[in-house]
Amino acid sequence: MKKILIMIVFMSIVFTPLMAKDGELQTSYLYENTRLLQMDGYSFGMGGASVGVLGKSFNLNNHAKDAFLRGFDVSAGMNMLYYNDYFESYTAQSYFGSINFPLKDWFMVNITGINNYLLLPKRDVANQWDSLELTKNYSSTLFFTLARKVNLTPKTQLGLGFTGKYVDQTVLFDYRSDYVVLEDAPGKYTLGKGFGADVSMIARFQLGSSTYFNMGGSLIDVVAPLNVVMGKYFGAGLEINHVLFYKNAKLNLAGDYLINHSDSTRMSFGIEEWILNERLALRLGFVDTKITAMDNKKAFTYDPDGAINSVYNDYDSLNLGYNLYNPKEQITMGLGFKAGGFEANFSYALGSEYTGNSMSFDIAYTGEEVKKSTYKFEPKIELQSNYKYFSPNGDGKRDQVIFFMNPKNIEEIGKWKLEIYNSSADLVKGFKGKKSVPKQITWDGKDKNNKTLPDGEYYALTEIEDIYGNVGSSQKVKFKIMKKSPSVDLTFMPDKLHPGSEKFKFMVTQMESVEIIKTKIVIMKEDEKIDEITYDGFKDSFKWNGIYGDNNYPEKGEELTAYCELTDNAGNTGKSVLVNIPVGEKVVEEDKKEVKMPEIFIAARIRFATSSSKLPSSAKEELDEVVEMLNKKKQLKIRIEGHTDSRGAAQTNYKLSLDRANVVKEYLIDEGVPEDRMVVVGYGEDMPIDSNNTEKGRKNNRRVDVIVISD
């Protein structure tokens, strides 16, 4: 039902202008001037420029702005226009009232009523202006608007409005013997009534964190309530949120252009500054309106003697195209005030060449408590971090974590907070603010007492609340603090390096179960680095043939040193102790001159997780090298020895060691090694190669050794 209703409204907005028909200039004059005068106290102070300014609940010229409102509010006001020279007191009055409320989360609904009184001059038989006698005439309009906002991109929003209206305009004639005004007619004449429609849109673009550009337009009377020509209304505005006198402030710059029904145009420019936490507004505007001379066109069809039309024609010809209700080059100014849920606007226009001073006033109630009870839409906010692991230890690597916050489905932010909890759900750090949400917050890992937190698991959660009391929360973002550097052990096999041989390899043992993002082995000769092996991630074995630089290699009898570095995902780097590498005879061509193998040597060493006999994926590369060697040297056999650490029952450990050895055997069989070339034994915890009193030692002992034996 929701999608169908929204589709009907959008189709009406798109296709209604296609059905519009231009009418004749007959009953339009009174009606058109009421359109020019339909400005509230807010718009009046801006010279009428208001299409590009958001945030005001009352606006007749672009109802698409209602799409950006939220909750319930009511507005009421009036304006009075004064004219000198030919008129006494005011010549026009407008009274208006408006109500906004949401229709679920489908549309914003606006209902507005306005009654415009225009004071038409009487004339005597000699067609001269009388001594300021006035008659009252009015045009009443009821508007009903459905508006909806569409988010085109994260920084672009579009408001669309469809407005239906009913118009009724009437002229009242005062019968006195010294006036010639339709003497045989009754005292009240309906000059036209009917239903009409406007369509409007406004686009909002976010240019920066606190700057917005708005542009919009309206097609007025695309379905004409009277026989009038369609009007066009365009406007744009720039909104800049800033700080002034240590308080939140907002600057609006706006300009509008109205092409009214009977060829009249109005240009408006305005500037507005909200200060003192947007409590007080100062406005200044400029307006210039001109209408093409009416010649002998009739403004009122019910005027057979031409009494009223002649007045307008004569005045228009005297004033070079400017009629009674269209000021020429007029300056306006205004004040606005917000407090306690009320907003009041007062504006004053200085008299221009053809007009006197004018003023407008309105008041609106946008009480927060009322909005809180009517606007029930949960805001949303996304939270992300740049690291899942970070290390606030001052080494310059991942010492800080950055949180990114992205609020959604929220019109005006009341307050926000970002809180960080430990694994026990205790609050350890908090950030908070009002109004705008920062795009990112950087945290150095310190708690609310400015002490660096211990290693462990943490999570962050952000909460946002709009000005109506609706609260939304993000998902939890989990991360770890890891300040400790990873421990690493480096060994090698066989026990001597023969430069040029492909049999030498480094063995890397990681002591803690942390994710490693980089493995590096550095080889040195007399304290000078001669080679380096790096790998993105963790790898537990590396081949090295002893050749470095431009085909350089160490001489027999020399000794090299090497160490290994592991960098974890928190940016911590751990370094092993130096190992000494004896250098043997260089191998020139391995297929012609081979290094004589010892009768027994370890071809592979596979380490296992605690209580597990699952073959690690990292071991397959090492075992594939054993397969390659056995395929080349058919005379060789291997013994597969399984081992455990000392924890647990001896019988259980024996079975586990045998299971580990058999897993390696099955892999080699699958790779084509005959079963009769392998011997499998399990030693349990009986043959440790390291201490079982440390985690490092126990990890070394949980192993399978593949030992090559000569036939």
From TrEMBL:
Top-level taxonomic group: Bacteria
Domain OmpA-like as annotated: residue spans: 595-711
Main location: membrane
SUPFAM superfamilies registered for this protein in UniProt: OmpA-like
Pfam families recorded: CHU_C, OmpA
Keyword Membrane among record annotations: yes
Membrane found in the keyword field: yes
The entry's keywords: Cell outer membrane, Membrane
CDD domains cross-referenced by the UniProt entry: OmpA_C-like (cd07185)
Subcellular compartments: Cell outer membrane
GO cellular component: cell outer membrane
Entry protein name: OmpA family protein
